[in-house]
């Protein structure tokens, strides 16, 4: 006979479904509790019934012993089956339904007994304790079987002990009461088990709905997969409960928001502070792909409510993409400027060629000097007043772009900025954003002009950009620094409404400020104050390499012009 294939063998064990497992465990627990409770109740019940029976026997014995006829009969009459003691004892036994009521003298001779033939004989158990004046409760075996008995001394009218009274209640009747109580106890236990099973079924159904009838192993696997996914993805994930408290943060969210485990269990206002990021994550600002700035990072946030009243928010880092977008804008501007310069250069070369063909050599020399001098004056004006090479290069490039767009970019006579900046790249970002916004504001207007003023007051740098555009209404002067707010149409590769927000964040990070007001003569005037923006000056100032190079070039040009 071939063995049973392994796939067909009967496998015993817990069911796989969580509903069945929970129901089975809860029913088993309810049954165990019912059995344990029943056993714990039955164990002391027998002792309680025995105690009640012995006390009842003792009480009957005490009542019999105080009957004056009993003591008088023991002292003055012989022990006979029809004597007064026997008759009174039998009356008491029948009235109390006791098993026996035995009256004895001090020698242990019976004066009464349910069996008349036993009257006049000595008792079968030792009455010494009762005759000594003690009251006795016990369960013992006598001529009538096992009984719960009580023994008390019998005293005459003078208080002397003349005998004892022993009363017994059949022990079998106690067991009968116990056995009679078992069905009722089992009924209670069965009812409790039924209620427990019903409650277990209802709880299991609720657990089934909440866990989607998954097995415990499936839930454990899902939890492990969730942890791996949350900490492995390159997007920040923030989970909130229905009260708006943070209940989960993955590694990327901690990095992007700059918070740690101390934020768990706290509200967003407590964990992040006030700001647009908090409003977006809390749902006070609605929409998809909402832009926000956290520190120096540009984030894109989305928020999805959950069934339990909470929410899950995702964060994507767009800082690098935003920087690439700005670089692309700058590159496009430079390309346009170079294209315009190429066109202008071609026109000038044609003019120069014509002058040479006409043998107008003096006019050709003068024409070349004017063209070279114009560009040299612009560069020298910037480099003389702004000694930081990054800022100087930025403004020279912006001047070329502004000229192509028909805008005059001027450097204020008050501009003086030494080459001692603590964070030149940050100031380049601030000035670049402000100049770009100013060029956008004045483009297409008559007599368009943008003026840049960079000066120092002690160790504080003051950056001012003015334009001749339409200006900014007073009610919008704070709104324009909000992330994502812009009056201009966004290009295809990135969002608008980030530049001015970054400007304010950079200023506030250094303890400074960024404000906007009305420029003299109309237009907007942006002012950025950066405390402690300069390093300590050197003991003996010396020309930097770029400055020395520019000075030498200027001297060479002057000599050539002479």
From TrEMBL:
<keyword id="KW-0902">Two-component regulatory system</keyword>
<dbReference type="Pfam" id="PF14689">
    <property type="entry name" value="SPOB_a"/>
</dbReference>
<keyword id="KW-0418">Kinase</keyword>
<keyword id="KW-1133">Transmembrane helix</keyword>
<feature type="region of interest" description="Disordered">
    <location>
        <begin position="535"/>
        <end position="562"/>
    </location>
</feature>
<dbReference type="InterPro" id="IPR013767">
    <property type="entry name" value="PAS_fold"/>
</dbReference>
<feature type="transmembrane region" description="Helical">
    <location>
        <begin position="23"/>
        <end position="46"/>
    </location>
</feature>
<dbReference type="Pfam" id="PF17203">
    <property type="entry name" value="sCache_3_2"/>
</dbReference>
<protein>
    <recommendedName>
        <fullName>histidine kinase</fullName>
        <ecNumber>2.7.13.3</ecNumber>
    </recommendedName>
</protein>
<dbReference type="InterPro" id="IPR029151">
    <property type="entry name" value="Sensor-like_sf"/>
</dbReference>
<dbReference type="InterPro" id="IPR036890">
    <property type="entry name" value="HATPase_C_sf"/>
</dbReference>
<feature type="transmembrane region" description="Helical">
    <location>
        <begin position="185"/>
        <end position="203"/>
    </location>
</feature>
<feature type="compositionally biased region" description="Low complexity">
    <location>
        <begin position="535"/>
        <end position="550"/>
    </location>
</feature>
<dbReference type="InterPro" id="IPR039506">
    <property type="entry name" value="SPOB_a"/>
</dbReference>
<keyword id="KW-0067">ATP-binding</keyword>
<dbReference type="InterPro" id="IPR035965">
    <property type="entry name" value="PAS-like_dom_sf"/>
</dbReference>
<dbReference type="InterPro" id="IPR004358">
    <property type="entry name" value="Sig_transdc_His_kin-like_C"/>
</dbReference>
<keyword id="KW-0472">Membrane</keyword>
<keyword id="KW-1003">Cell membrane</keyword>
<feature type="domain" description="Histidine kinase">
    <location>
        <begin position="423"/>
        <end position="534"/>
    </location>
</feature>
<dbReference type="InterPro" id="IPR005467">
    <property type="entry name" value="His_kinase_dom"/>
</dbReference>
<keyword id="KW-0597">Phosphoprotein</keyword>
<dbReference type="GO" id="GO:0004673">
    <property type="term" value="F:protein histidine kinase activity"/>
</dbReference>
<keyword id="KW-0547">Nucleotide-binding</keyword>
<dbReference type="Pfam" id="PF02518">
    <property type="entry name" value="HATPase_c"/>
</dbReference>
<dbReference type="InterPro" id="IPR003594">
    <property type="entry name" value="HATPase_dom"/>
</dbReference>
<dbReference type="Pfam" id="PF00989">
    <property type="entry name" value="PAS"/>
</dbReference>
<keyword id="KW-0812">Transmembrane</keyword>
<keyword id="KW-0808">Transferase</keyword>
<dbReference type="InterPro" id="IPR000014">
    <property type="entry name" value="PAS"/>
</dbReference>
<dbReference type="InterPro" id="IPR016120">
    <property type="entry name" value="Sig_transdc_His_kin_SpoOB"/>
</dbReference>
<dbReference type="InterPro" id="IPR033463">
    <property type="entry name" value="sCache_3"/>
</dbReference>
């Amino acid at each position: 006979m071939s063995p049973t294939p392994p796939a067909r063998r009967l496998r015993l064990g817990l069911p796989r479904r969580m509903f069945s497992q929970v129901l089975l465990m809860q029913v088993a627990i309810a049954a165990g509790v019912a059995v344990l409770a029943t056993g714990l109740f039955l164990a002391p019940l027998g002792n309680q019934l025995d105690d009640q029976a012995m006390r009842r026997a003792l009480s009957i014995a005490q009542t019999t012993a105080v009957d004056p006829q009993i003591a008088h009969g023991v002292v003055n009459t012989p022990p006979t089956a029809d004597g007064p003691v026997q008759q009174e004892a039998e009356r008491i036994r029948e009235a109390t339904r006791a098993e026996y009521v035995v009256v004895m003298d001090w020698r242990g001779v019976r004066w009464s007994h349910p069996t008349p033939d036993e009257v006049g004989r000595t008792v079968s158990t030792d009455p010494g304790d009762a005759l000594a004046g003690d009251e006795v409760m016990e369960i013992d075996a006598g001529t009538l079987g096992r009984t719960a008995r009580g023994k008390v001394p019998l005293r005459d009218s003078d208080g002397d002990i003349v005998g004892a009274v022993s009363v017994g209640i059949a022990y079998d009747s106690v067991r009968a009461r116990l056995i009679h109580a078992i069905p009722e106890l089992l009924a209670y236990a069965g009812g409790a088990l039924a209620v427990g099973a019903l409650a277990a079924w209802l709880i299991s159904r609720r657990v089934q709905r909440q866990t989607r009838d998954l097995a415990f192993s499936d839930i454990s696997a899902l939890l492990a997969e969730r942890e791996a996914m949350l900490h492995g993805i390159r997007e920040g994930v923030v989970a909130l409960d229905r009260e708006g408290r943070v209940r989960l943060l993955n590694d990327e969210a901690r990095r992007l928001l700059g918070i740690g485990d101390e934020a768990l269990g706290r509200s967003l206002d407590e964990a992040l502070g006030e700001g647009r990021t908090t409003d977006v994550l809390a749902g006070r600002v609605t929409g998809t792909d909402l832009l926000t700035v956290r520190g120096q990072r540009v984030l894109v946030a989305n928020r999805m409510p959950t069934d339990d009243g909470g929410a899950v928010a995702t964060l994507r880092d767009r800082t690098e993409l935003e920087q690439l977008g700005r670089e692309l804008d700058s590159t496009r501007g430079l390309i346009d400027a170079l294209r315009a310069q190429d066109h202008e250069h071609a026109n000038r070369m044609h003019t120069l060629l014509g002058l040479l063909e006409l043998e107008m050599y003096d006019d050709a020399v003068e024409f070349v000097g004017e063209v070279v001098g114009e560009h040299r004056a612009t560069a020298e004006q910037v480099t003389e007043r702004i000694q930081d090479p990054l800022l100087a290069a930025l403004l020279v490039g912006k001047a070329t772009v502004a000229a192509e767009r028909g805008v005059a970019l001027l450097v204020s006579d008050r501009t003086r900025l030494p080459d001692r900046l603590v964070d030149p790249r940050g100031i380049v970002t601030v000035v670049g954003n402000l100049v770009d916004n100013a060029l956008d504001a004045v483009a297409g207007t008559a007599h368009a002009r943008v003026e840049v003023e960079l000066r120092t007051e002690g160790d504080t740098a003051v950056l001012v950009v003015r334009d001749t555009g339409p200006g900014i209404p007073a009610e919008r002067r704070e709104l324009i620094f909000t992330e994502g707010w812009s009056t201009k149409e966004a290009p295809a590769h990135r969002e608008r409404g980030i530049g001015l927000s970054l400007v304010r964040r950079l200023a506030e990070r250094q303890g400074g400020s960024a404000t906007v007001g009305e420029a003299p003569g109309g237009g907007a005037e942006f002012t950025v104050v950066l405390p402690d923006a300069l390093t300590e000056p050197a003991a003996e100032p010396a020309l930097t390499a770029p400055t020395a190079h520019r000075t030498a070039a200027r001297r060479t040009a002057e000599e050539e012009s002479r």
